[in-house]
Amino acid sequence: MAEEAAVHYLMAQGLSILTKNYRIKGGEIDIICREGDAVVFVEVRLRSSEAFGGAAGSITATKRRRIILAARHWLMRHGDCPCRFDCILMNGRGGIEWSRDAFSAD
Description:
This protein has about 110 residues and is α+β, with helices and mostly antiparallel strands. It has 3 helices and 5 strands. About 30% of the residues lie in helices and about 40% in strands.
């Protein structure tokens, strides 16, 4: 349900959805979309509490590595292009925060 809300939010912001739930062995990306010339890899996180860092705090270094692995695989199959990693952070009260360029592959 959170991912569908994120899809609608991103589309309302003008992004084009390319695929959802892209999975490979060892990694997954919730949403892949396009904004202008850039491909945007989006992680969606929903947390009802801000304890332990809330939604943003739940994106650990291990989770980022898995997203980056899947993104590299997607780029190898679809062509190298400018890209970034965004996060859609949601709370249990319906709030949405879009964190653009939340982390890098470096």
